[in-house]
Each structure stands twice: as structure tokens, then as C-alpha cells.
Amino acid sequence: MSDTAVISDRRLERQAAKRRRARRGQAIAIGSSVLVLGGLAALVLTSPGWPVVRETFFSWTIFKDSFPEVLEGFWLDVKLFVIIEMAVLAIGLALALLKISRNPALFPLRMLATVFVDLFRGVPSILLIFLIGFGVPALQLEGLPTDPVVLGAIALTLAYSGYVAEVYRAGIRSIHRGQRDAALAIGLTEGQALRHVILPQALRRISAPLLNDFVALQKEVALISILGPLEAFRIAQIVQYKTFNFTPLIAAALLYLLVTVPLARVVDRIGGPEGVVR
Amino acid sequence: MSDAAGTPAPGAPVLEIRGVTKAFGEREVLRGIDLSVREHEAIALIGASGSGKSTLLRCIDLLEEIDDGDVLLDGEVITDPAVSPVAVRRRLGLVFQAYNLFPHLTALQNVVLGETRAQGIGRREAEERGRELLRRFGLEGREDDRPDGLSGGQQQRVAIARAFSGRPRVMLLDEVTSALDPELVGEVLAAVRDLKDEGMTMLIATHEMSFAREVADQVAFLHDGRIAELGSPEQVLGQPRNAETQRFLSRLLEAGRA
């Protein structure tokens, strides 16, 4: 890589010392890990309760039998959160824009948007799901959806749109006033300034908190199970009732982790200093 | 662009400011400004920090609403509430002290945005013109750089190209070199000089007295919300009549800036 002839002895010495330090650090980290993790594993595995725990939570045969079923249910979860996320992104943005607009004609809508956000953000999701999922069909009105999957999705969409609207609004407000001034100065309308200058910058800034809300949403989709749809958690629960074994729930947990952990890693990455655009 | 070879001589008034006042709450920043900028004329607006230079420029570009008086552009009262501010701003070019480039767009996109969205020029033509403008201000090869990859002087030159891209009737420059490192001031002033040579009508708020002397046809000294003195650069900067102008210039002299 570099010309060895020009590297001084002093520099070589320093490089060697640095390498020694790095190697020693690695060795200590490995040793300490083996000691601590191995100790913990030994403690758990040799404890008198372990066989019962393993049989109840980590039974391989039950895992094998229940996993395909749980996985099938999980597709419903995946479909639900993809649809809900898209709806939330659109409705949240609409609410945020309404709340920041200063058009007097929009005053009543602006007021409704504020009430909407306060209301649905302030109520427990499970209560909303229950209220809408069981309440709307109880009305027995023509034309209203009665499918619990649809009603559950509507309830979660309402709850999360409120959150996401506030995230959008914070992002838009965080863009320096000078950006709006400059956009207006080159002759853009307020709407064009928002669309071409403010929003693109705001979206970049809020992508981490937005995805963070989606990690939360992906878990909360399981709450829809109280309405009866056979999604992963519900199926796992049914198998658990039949077998008196909790392994199916572990299988479901693994599936949720499979989608939430990668998303959380994405959040970590874009949330770092590199990802933040001034 | 220019009517004749060389720097065109000043003609009829393009921008007229009549009795403009502006207060922020209790603080009266402008207390009755009268100033007229003629075609092809460059007026340097000098005065202490906080004397209202930026506010005046922002009021002209309708980024602030004035309290009293009128501003006329080509004889039309632009501060009339019935006039669309968007249409007015499309005829003016404002350059900010802090550049205010759009950080998510490249240098070229910064210039093209106004042309395509505000001036209604097709994308291809706008890009062609944008490239030419950037080349003109010494930014060839920088078209695809984002603002944070450019030096302050380069950013300000992109900002000047952006403001100029709409072929404005008047350009308003708000202390365009104040945020720059000293060694970068020259390249931005060269860009302004270039506009002046082309005959651009300009109102230039500045702290650079030597530049005002060189480029401006007239110098206006703003003090306490009013134009305290207006005249040729030689007169206002050389033999100021107003006591406040004298005090201001001697303070600058002490600071080694005149």
C-alpha cells in the first residue's frame, strides 16, 4: 500500500504497539464473553427447573408442528402492517398539513385535525380496536364494514395517524425559516415551497422517528387478534390452549422479531449523525 | 441585455420606495424610507448592523408586510394587498446573507427549481440555462455538488445564479459577503460586478465600503430607520455631510474596514 522505504522506525514501532493493543483487547473481550455467557448458560442449564422450562417454552416437536400454522397467520400480520403503514403515512401527512396551514377557509378542518390527533393519540389502542371492532358491527348499519380485519386495521390506522401527524409536523417545523424565505424569493407559491423545499428536507429528518413508530405498529398489529382474526399471535394462542405448551408463542415471537429487528437496525443507521441532513 | 456597449447608463426609475415604515411590535425598524432606483443603477445601502437594511430588502421582496407607504416596481404598487406577492417575487431576485441554498438539491437543481416551477420554463431549457449561469459565475464542474460540498464563496455564487435565473427587474443583495471568510469575498464581489456590467438594476446592502465605492452609482446611508444621506459614492463616503454618516465611517475606519 505505502512505500516501506519512507516509513520511519518510530512509526513502525507505533504501528506494532497499536496492533498489540488491538489484539489484547480482542482476547480480553473473547475471554470475558466466554466466561460470562458460559457461566450464565451453565447456571440456567444446570438449574433444577430447566427441564420444565425447556419443555414448556422450547419444545422442538411442538415448535416444528405449530410453526407452519403460525407462519401462515403471520402473513396476515404482514399484510396488515403494510396496508396500515401506507394509510398512516398518507393520513398523518394530511393531518400535519392541515394543522400547519394558515388558510382561514380550512379553519374548521384544522380544528377537526387537532381534535382527531388529541383523541386517537390519547386513547389506548386496545380500547380503540375493541370499540371499533365490536362497536361498529353492533350498529347493524348498511354499508359499514363488518370484517374484523378491516375494522381492526381502521382502528390502528386512526391511532397511529395521530402519532405520525405530530412527527411530520415536528419535522416541518424543524426546517429553518430561511428555506421558506428562499423558496418564496425565487417565486414559488407557499404550496410549491412546501412540496419542493420544505417537505423533502423534513422527510429526511423524520425518517428515523417515523420508522421507530412503525416498529411499534408492527407489534401492535397483534392486538387485532382480540377481534378474532387468525393472525400469528391468535393461532399461537390457540395451539397453546390445546397443548398446554407455550412454544407456539415463542414461534410467533420469533416471527415478529424477524421483521422488527431489521427495521430497528435501519432506524439505528439513519438515525446516526451521518444520516442526518443538516 | 444591455442597451449599449459598456455599462448602460441609469434610466427611468424601476424601483420606488415611498414613505415605507415597518415595526416589529414596539420596535420601529423603518421610519419612513424614500428611495428610488433607476434602470441599470446600483445603489449601495450602508449602515450599522440593525439599522434596517435587511428589513428594507425583505419588505421590498414582500417577505415582510410594510405598515405604511408604498413600494413601486415599474410604476406598479406592489405593496397593495390586492397584488399577488408570488407574481411580484418572480420579478425580483433576492440574495441572502446566509446563502439559504436548498441543501437537498444540487447546485444545478437549486438554480433550475425557480426556472421550472416559478418561471414555467421547460426542464431541458432550464437545465441548459442553469448550466450556463453556473459557468458564468465560475462554477463549471460543480453542477452536481450539494451545497455542503461547496465553499461559502461557491455557495453564494450559486445563490446569485439562482436569484438571477428568473431574469429579475431588480436584484436585492443582502450583505452577500458578510458570512464569508475574507479570502472568499473577492470571488462573490466579482460575480456582483459582473451583474452590474450587464446593467442589472441593484439594491446592495453591504459592509464593503471599497466595493460600494467601485460598483455603486449612489450610496444610501441608513440610520435610525431613515435614509440619512444619499449621494455619489465619492461624496457620501469621501465628504459625508451628515454627522451620523461621518460617525459611522470613522468607526469603520478605526476598525480598518473602510
List the helices and strands and how they pair.
The complex is a heterodimer of chains A (278) and B (258).
Chain A: H1 9-46, H2 50-57, H3 60-100, H4 107-122, H5 125-139, H6 148-173, H7 177-185, H8 190-220, H9 232-243, H10 247-271
Chain B: E1 13-24, E2 27-38, E3 42-46, H1 53-60, E4 68-73, E5 76-77, H2 85-89, E6 92-95, H3 107-117, H4 123-136, H5 152-164, E7 170-174, H6 182-198, E8 201-205, H7 209-215, E9 218-223, E10 226-231, H8 233-238, H9 243-254
Parallel strand pairs in B: 3-8, 3-9, 6-7, 7-8
Antiparallel strand pairs in B: 1-2, 1-4, 4-5, 9-10
Could you give me the name of the CATH homologous superfamily of the largest domain in chain A? MetI-like
Oligomer state equals heterodimer
| Terminal residue distance of chain A | 35 Å
What gyration radius of chain B follows from the Cα positions, in whole Å?
Answer: 18 Å
- Which two chains have the most extensive interface, and how many residues on each? A-B, 19 and 27 residues
Shape of chain A: flat
Tally the beta strands of chain A.
Answer: 0
What is the average per-residue confidence, as pLDDT of chain B, rounded to a whole number? 93
| Biggest sheet descriptor of chain A | none
The main sheet of chain B orders its strands as 6-7-8-3-9-10
Give the CATH class of the largest domain in chain A: Mainly Alpha
Spans where pLDDT lies below 50 across 5 or more residues of chain A: 273-278
The percentage of residues in β strands of chain B lies in 15-25%
CATH architecture of the domain at 13-101 and 170-254 in chain B: 3-Layer(aba) Sandwich
Supply database-style keywords.
heterodimer; A: 278 residues; mainly alpha; MetI-like fold; 2 domains; 0% strand; flat; disordered C terminus; B: 258 residues; alpha/beta; Rossmann fold; six-stranded mixed beta sheet; four-stranded antiparallel beta sheet; globular; disordered N terminus
